[in-house]
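Researcher: Let's do a round of design. I'm pasting the structure tokens now; please hold your answer until I've finished.
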């Protein structure tokens, strides 16, 4: 049985020239993509069109929004940028090597939020925030910068390759754990232009 609010909304829709079902429809969270991003804590759909301007039109972001695949994962030029972005946006809470400080560690195979084993889940946590002090970073980082940051976080991983759900089988075979002091050349070639300094 329909409650009074729904009946009133349906009648209002008819009065405004819409059908009864159009009055009951709920707005959607941004344009549809192939992947649905959900808030890590509430499960609500995230509108990834909101936040810092730019960084939504790169081929990597377009592919990620459609498939959930981060093409930056093993691209040295993106890792170079991701290291810098991580240092300024994440390391204060998560440690310079992702070892954890105020926030949880990000460099092993234990995830506070199991959804963060996927790049879609980790993106949603960075974009929309989580519990504690982990606020949303969608005003600080563009989606493209988030993908570069995720690539660096994945690069810091020191756990077993078989637990790295973000790597495909070929990447798992070639995987080498991060070693402190590793330096990525500033002129590394790849998909990512150097960050503006």
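Researcher: That's everything. Go ahead.
Model: Designed sequence:
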């Amino acid at each position: 049985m329909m409650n009074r609010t729904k009946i009133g909304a349906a009648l209002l829709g008819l009065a405004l020239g819409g059908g009864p079902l159009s009055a009951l429809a709920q707005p959607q969270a941004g344009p549809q993509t192939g992947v649905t991003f959900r808030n890590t804590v509430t499960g609500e759909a995230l509108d990834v069109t909101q936040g810092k301007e730019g960084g939504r039109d790169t081929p990597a972001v377009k592919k990620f929004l459609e498939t959930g695949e981060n093409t930056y994962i093993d691209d040295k030029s993106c890792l170079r940028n991701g290291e810098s972005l991580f240092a300024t946006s994440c390391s204060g809470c998560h440690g310079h090597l992702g070892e954890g400080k105020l926030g949880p560690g990000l460099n092993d195979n234990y995830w506070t939020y199991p959804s963060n084993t996927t790049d879609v889940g980790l993106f949603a946590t960075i974009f929309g925030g989580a519990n504690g002090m982990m606020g949303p970073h969608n005003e600080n980082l563009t989606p493209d910068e988030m993908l570069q940051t995720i690539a660096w976080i994945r690069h810091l991983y020191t756990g077993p390759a078989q637990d790295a759900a973000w790597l495909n089988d070929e990447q798992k075979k070639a995987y080498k754990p991060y070693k402190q002091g590793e330096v990525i050349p500033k002129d590394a070639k790849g998909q990512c232009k150097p960050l503006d300094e």
